[in-house]
Amino acid sequence: QVQLVESGGGSVQPGGSLRLSCAASIGVFGISVIAWYRQAPGKPRELVARINENGDTNYADSVKGRFTISRDNTKKMGYLQMTSLKPEDTAVYYCNIFDVWGQGTQVTVSS
User: Fold this and answer.
1) What is the Cα–Cα distance from 43 to 40, expressed in whole angstroms?
2) Angle at 54 between CA 49 and CA 58, to 5 degrees
3) Which of 26, 29, 84, 93 is the most exposed place for a label (fewest CB within 10 A)?
């Protein structure tokens, strides 16, 4: 059974940075695709970034150049480094692996 636990969310001012972490309990982490999604109030959940088992990455246009997704297979961890944060980045961020969701971590960007 896959379990995911996100951490690293918080409140920051515009222009600030945060690094989200996703800890996975899964035996085949190395061949998984890791995806980060976010959901703002009243909006549908949207894909932010994903990284496959080869390290190839994809980003939503709204975060390109500001967010970086990465993974550490030895630690079974996924990361989302977020820089130059904007108020519109405010949302609950979720990690997804093999169609399993974590509980989410709140990111609030406000002055």
Assistant:
1) 5
2) 20
3) 84
